[in-house]
Amino acid sequence: GRGVALSLVERYGWNGPLVQEFPSMNQARWTHACGVVRVGGREAVIVAGGRITSGQGDELISVEMMVVGQPFWQFKQSLPQPRLAPSMVIIAGRPQLSGGHYEIGRRNEMFPGEVLEYNQEQDEWRPVAQIEGRSHHVALAVPSKLLPRC
C-alpha cells in the first residue's frame, strides 16, 4: 500500500489514549525511527530517517529533535546515508540507530550494516557496531538487571 508522510507528532499512553500533541516536524516523514532522550535534564524526542512518499529514492537522511515544551523541532546532524525503516534504541542515554535500507536504483537496495550512535554534545553520528543481513523496524534493548551477572 501507499503510505503518507506526516509532520504531525502525538504522544499516546500505553493503552492508546492521546496524551499530548507536539509541534509539527520540519520534514514530513513516515517509516522513520524515533526515541526519547534527555537534553539538559528535559525530555526530548529524536526522529531519524524514514521517507517522504512511497516512491523510489525518497528515503531521508535528515534527523530532528524537539525538547518537550519547546514550540519547534531542530534539524540535527544528518545520517551518513538514507535509512528507510530503521530502528532506534536508547542505551545509556544515547540513541543507537540500526537497520533500514535505501535504493540506489530500480530493484537495487542497500542494507547498511553500521549501527550508528548519536552524540548530542558533538552533534554527530558515529559507527559503534556492525550487523549483517536485512533489518527493518526491529530492535530490542534488554535492561541490564534482566541479564545474568558475568
Q: Detail the poorly predicted runs.
A: none
Rounded radius of gyration (Å): 16 Å
Strand content: 35-45%
* Sheet/helix structural class: mainly beta
Sum up the overall morphology in one term. Answer: globular
Total beta strands: 12
Helix share, percent: under 10%
What is the chain-wise order of helices and strands?
EEEEEEEEEEEE
Most strands sheet: 4 strands, antiparallel
Tell me, rounded to a whole number, the average pLDDT: 87
**Order of adjacent strands in the largest pleated sheet:** 3-4-5-6
Span from first to last CA? 47 Å
SS field, number of helical segments = 0
Structure, explained:
There is one protein chain. With 150 residues, the chain is mostly beta strands. It is 0% helix and 41% strand. It has no helices and twelve strands. It has strands at residues 9-12, 18-22, 33-39, 42-48, 63-67, 74-76, 87-91, 94-98, 102-105, 108-110, 114-119, 124-130. The strands form four sheets. The chain has a four-stranded antiparallel beta sheet with strand order 3-4-5-6, with no helix packed on it. The chain is globular and about 45 Å long. 25% of the residues are buried.
